[in-house]
Amino acid sequence: MSSPSSAPVAAPAAKICFNTQCKESIADHIAPRRRGWRLRSGEIAELCDRCSMGWIIRDSSVLVLRFGFPKSPFFSFFFCHCRSSFEQGTFCETFHSNDSGWRNCETCGKRVHCGCIASAQSYGFLDAGGIECIPCPRKSLATAPNQISSSLMFMQQHVPERRDSPAKTWRSMANPLSGQWRQASHMWNMTMQSDLQQRLSYEFDRPSSIEKLAHGGRHSIATHEKKFEPERKTNTDLNNISRDKYIHGNAGENDPMSTRKSVSTDPCSTSSIVNFEAKPNSSIKLQQLPVTKENSSILISLSASFPSSNGVKEPMKLSSNQSPSQITTPLSKQFYPQRMNEAELQVQMRNGRTRVDAYPRTQLLPRYWPRITNQELQQISGELYLTVTSPQSSITPLFEKMLSASDAGRIGRLVLPKKCAEAYFPTISQPEGLPLKVQDASGKDWIFQFRFWPNNNSRMYVLEGVTPCIQAMQLQAGDTVTFSRIDPEGKLVMGFRKASSSSNEQDPETHKSSTDISPPPEADQITSLIQKDGSTSKLLQVPSKRKAKALGLKSNCLHIENEEPMELKLTWEEAQMLLCPPPNSSPSIVVIEGLEFEEYEIIFFCSRVEFGADSKHGILKKRKAKAKGENVEVSDGLDTLANLAILGYSENRQSSQPTTRHPRHKPGCTCIVCIQPPSGKGPKHKPHCTCNVCLTVKRRFRTLELRREKRQSEKESEMPGKQQSPILPPEVLPQPGSMDAASTGPSDEVATQKVDKLIADTVVDEASEHRTTSASPHKTPQIDLNIQPEREEEPLVQPQAVSLVPY
DNA sequence: GGCATGCATGGAT
DNA sequence: CATCCATGCATGC
Description:
Layout: E1 35-38, E2 44-46, H1 49-56, E3 63-67, H2 73-87, H3 91-96, E4 102-104, E5 111-113, E6 123-125, E7 131-133, H4 135-143, H5 148-158, E8 168-171, H6 178-187, E9 190-192, H7 195-205, H8 207-213, H9 221-225, H10 236-247, H11 256-260, E10 273-276, E11 284-286, E12 301-303, H12 330-335, H13 342-350, H14 374-385, E13 394-402, H15 405-408, E14 413-416, H16 418-424, E15 434-440, E16 445-455, E17 458-464, H17 467-472, E18 480-487, E19 491-497, H18 499-506, H19 525-532, H20 545-550, E20 566-570, H21 572-578, E21 588-592, E22 595-599, E23 601-603, E24 633-634, H22 637-647, H23 672-675, H24 692-718, H25 746-773, E25 803-805
Parallel strand pairs: 3-12, 11-20, 15-19, 23-24, 23-25
Antiparallel strand pairs: 1-2, 3-20, 4-5, 6-7, 8-10, 9-11, 13-18, 14-17, 15-16, 16-17, 18-19, 21-22
The chain binds a DNA duplex through helix 15, strand 16 and strand 17.
GO cellular component, one term: nucleus
GO molecular function: DNA binding; zinc ion binding
Subcellular location: Nucleus
């Protein structure tokens, strides 16, 4: 049943989801936007929302979205659909076992089904020809881990192996696209930016640690790690294989999601599983992948700030938006602590290699894993990130330490964990060490003497002169200081967490009753809703450790701690697909700068950290009014999020500086849309700037304004009795002529705030809507992806530009 | 005597 | 059992 013919023929008239496991009727107005792969007949498979989302997210991953999780309805939406489409993907087992397309693994000889999309994740192509099933590359990787994708993913396998934390499991989803999904699978290579990330770094760095991580010896993988002998990493053949796979987007075969549960020896089994573990408040990042030329598309990087549980806005970390190969994520930084220069890093990133082969093998004890909360990160970033640091900066939590009595005492010596010091602080060879400048959250610089003294053939690292800082922070024994690094400056930032509140901040739910499954008022709302519809039982669950334990959650799903900033990487097309136009809208073709855009009218909101966030209420409300048939309306939350995500795109890596940059703008564009943050700060184009982009923006704005007015007038004339329900209050809606490229005056700011508010209101409810409308687990369709569409045929990659009307 | 510094010790991991 | 590290303590100013 692996042939497309076995799938129901797309019946546009009936508008039934092409996915045989779904067969959900497709609303007419949605159908045109929910296209899947090209069928042999030349038609395009039409999918329902869920399936199509599952489909599109498997496209090559370039777009980077970061958002708080799970507060981001976008994320919720995203995963709901992912899950709905794929999480139960046992496609091969279910559908394809008897079909053709089987090949033998070149390594083990095992039969591997290569004929279906879903199975594409189960094998990899070898450079020398042939294929190799997942477990085989993994074995290779075990001995040749110095390759970023493999190493990362390999490490990910072990993250949940720790017994002191519940595993976050993630059921890998089936692969709709052979090559594409392999890349897309990278998209799901999540790391916890702070905690997990930290651990990934160290756990991988230190082979011996993995034994600990693989505590319990649940899997034989632990034995593999014992083979992490340095000399074996020189196995260039293996490395090359791994790297090539990675570079060619095939690293998905190495996906630990698959290997971890390698007990499933059937390479076709797509129910591969990966267990993730996320510490509270750690951030999750979907790992950047190198992209091949053909699938390299616009890189969008955006991280959003969402209100933390305590209502404090979390920092928005806008990461770089350069070419994919240039991206140095905090994760990569984490993997490459301070001892690698950017050039090295970039080279290695480009080469798909990590620094682990050059980095001293160290391991942090769990108690030093950074558990910096978003609030703390905000605390740091709030003062530093957007002001002191460069736009492309990112904050990487390094480690933390609970102050001992002596640390907090008047002696002024803060004993540093040896491995932390060696990993993240400058290398010092003399006991005298060197002065180390550390900024606190308020931006104040402190200069400590970073030094050591010999101790039992070892070293004991201390920071001297910390007393003033400790006192300034009013810290005492039991409090925790956190060290983070702002990259790429490498600036050290010191935060703190008071003992009295640290636990709550770290994991607000750990103090809840283990039987308390009621979600926290904010962060877990998505979770709870998803749980209601059953989704979390498979993919999206955001339990606390304790809760997870209490609930006996051991499902093969992704458990992600809430509130964790997350970074997704999507292709531009994926982003576009996420931009759902108003149901009744029809696109208009607009040519801008020589490019044709299929334009849906969506009010674009410019928002940065406030994106989707209501710091006060935490949970955002959706605006209730939605004008029926209103073409010109605020995009719904997802659209807005996507828009904002898109706008986060920046070739200039102005990642930390939120701007209203429009994706259509070219690299280096300095028009107001690109450079003007919502705050109004920064360079401005002159009111009468005649640069191409400004003119374009103005032109587009005028066009849309006129169109909007026209529609409104038409609507009013058609529905005189019906109350006009503009999505935006009039004062928020852009006024004709107000879209002056340089109009960033107070009125604009007011409008911006209102718009942001509306966005915020929109976003959360949108998530709720998607949650509530998400299929129940029983209704969750599996998508029959027994087709291997060629990418060039894929209709989804057709640019479907969405007009983003700057406010 | 008070304080800073550097080393040693021993419990914890 | 080795290592880490919190802290005690000796020494010098």
